[in-house]
Amino acid sequence: MSRFWSPVVHDLTPYVPGEQPRISQLVKLNTNENPYPPSPRVQAAIAAANVDSLRLYPDPESSALRASIAGYYGVAAEQVFVGNGSDEVLALVFQALLQHEAPLLFPDISYSFYPVYCKLYGIAYRTVPLDADFAIDPASYQQPCGGIIFPNPNAPTGRLLSRAAIEAMLQQHPDTVVVVDEAYVDFGGDSMIPLVAQYPNLLVVQTLSKSRSLAGLRVGLAVGNAELIAGLTRVKNSFNSYPLDRLAQAGAQAAFEDDAYFQVCRERVIASREALVAGLAALGFAVLPSAANFVFARHPAHDAARLAACLRQRNIIVRHFQQPRIEQFLRISIGTAAECQLLLSALADILADGA
Ligand code: PMP
């Protein structure tokens, strides 16, 4: 607390990011990073970068990268926005598109950054409870609102909302922006990007942090009607802030140009997830259906906080949330097949000796 802070800063409950340990022997299954390295083309693009060019500011429009992304998704470059990670893209989305008199709606169990942005930017919001199976209930979004945002698949539950349900939502709210945060979509969902041609109120946000193994490069994107993208660009340019740096533009572009590598990694993660789900079920865990690169699981007979602490003692980190309704769940990121196996063996030990 400080007398120098503005009142809104006093009231903020900042997001607590997942632990980023400094020792490397840990099995790190807590922040949904990809266990595989980025495409070799990313390495080549960054190695080929001309260091002398770093004297110069980067292209503020990220034109080459946006053209690549537009080509990849079959949209126009004016329909693509990029930022330093989807967290930054979302920050601009909240400021440019979701600040209205009527409250913004999002699920009560969801990405914990959403309420932080609302408080920071003074946006009215209302959380909408997930249903009994921890799924988003589209019917409960049939209420007047200033916008809707949800991750699909949702985080931390991993549950996917169908295209039909999202289309119904878009049709019910033709004058309201509906933001689908597809941070995890490549691991089991269909992207809603093909719908942007039909729904001017749809904005899809994605990240290169998960399925393209580039959490450290900080690149996120949004695709939508050119009018929505122009709103984001207007806020970004009014600060003259947030251009992607030269290396990030080059690396991200290379990642989109190596689809074969992307598909192989994605499929490996999905295969490890299926094996992990089966292994956890064999140990007595109840696992929610996951379309993401993590699973959300609870054991009916063992306290989740204790399990997380016991795993930590064995140098395995998973995520546990102290939040009503989900405090008995663990969120476990999908590691390599070997890491998933280590986790399962550790859990088997912990469950057997109760310590
Ligand atoms: N949306 C969701 C739902 C997430 O879980 C995350 C990752 N924590 C992000 C957005 C932000 O990811 P990044 O800033 O790395 O693109």
Automatic annotation (TrEMBL):
UniProt similarity note: Belongs to the class-II pyridoxal-phosphate-dependent aminotransferase family. Histidinol-phosphate aminotransferase subfamily.
Organism: Vogesella facilis
Cofactor: pyridoxal 5'-phosphate
Catalytic activity: L-histidinol phosphate + 2-oxoglutarate = 3-(imidazol-4-yl)-2-oxopropyl phosphate + L-glutamate
Source lineage: Bacteria, Pseudomonadati, Pseudomonadota, Betaproteobacteria, Neisseriales
Protein name as catalogued: Histidinol-phosphate aminotransferase
Gene name of this polypeptide: hisC
Record-annotated Aminotransferase class I/classII large domain positions: 25-347
Keyword Membrane appears in the UniProt entry: yes
Pathways per UniProt: Amino-acid biosynthesis; L-histidine biosynthesis; L-histidine from 5-phospho-alpha-D-ribose 1-diphosphate: step 7/9
